[in-house]
Amino acid sequence: DVKVTQSSRYLVKRTGEKVFLECVQDMDHENMFWYRQDPGLGLRLIYFSYDVKMKEKGDIPEGYSVSREKKERFSLILESASTNQTSMYLCASTPVGGAYEQYFGPGTRLTVT
Amino acid sequence: AQSVTQPDIHITVSEGASLELRCNYSYGATPYLFWYVQSPGQGLQLLLKYFSGDTLVQGIKGFEAEFKRSQSSFNLRKPSVHWSDAAEYFCAVGPYIFGNEKLTFGTGTRLTIIP
Description:
The structure holds two protein chains of two kinds. By secondary structure, chain A is mainly beta. Chain A contains no helices and eleven strands. In chain A, strand 4 and strand 5 form a beta hairpin. The N and C termini of chain A lie far apart (37 Å). In chain A, 37% of the residues are buried. In chain B, the strands form three sheets. In chain B, strands 2, 5, 6, 10, 11 and 12 form a six-stranded mixed β-sheet that branches. A four-stranded antiparallel β-sheet of chain B has the order 3-9-8-7, with no helix packed on it. The radius of gyration of chain B is 14 Å and the shape is globular. Chain B starts with a strand and ends with a strand. Classes of the chains: A mainly beta, B mainly beta.
């Protein structure tokens, strides 16, 4: 089975802190994604990566950056956390070659105070 | 641009009753269509998917969905719900384009089951 893991289930950070959210997948998938999930807004794509060191902005990239140094790991970085970044963050992966199903991690609930 | 509409924010159903969750999509060509379920505090799990062929697709946990091109719909159904089906359900659409694996998700429908 595909496994996508996220470094933390719950995280509490202060305004202005630099925050790293880590995601690791074990199925050698080329594509990885970061979403944020907010009530009533569904899932919104922040960034995605289709190869090592390659990335593209999603629908809401402002305030975020990403890093993909190894194929299995995709990091989301909040350079200076703000309270409006309090949310559930979901990571997903999928192989290249058409819109295959995305495999999701359990999510990280981030609270910025 | 592709988009997905789930018109029902919250649905309440009695245990044992039938269920239909609505999903309408907008996309100019043949889409990939998915239904995901999210149990409280969990990530998303794939229920079923439609790529081509038979327009009625079967998924896990007794769910099925029907693709209706003329109505741009992909509604999810279950003949008899169980208390464990209480969750949030997301419809998603993806383009039929090699190398473009982004999905667009709907805003979700929260399902409550009453005894």
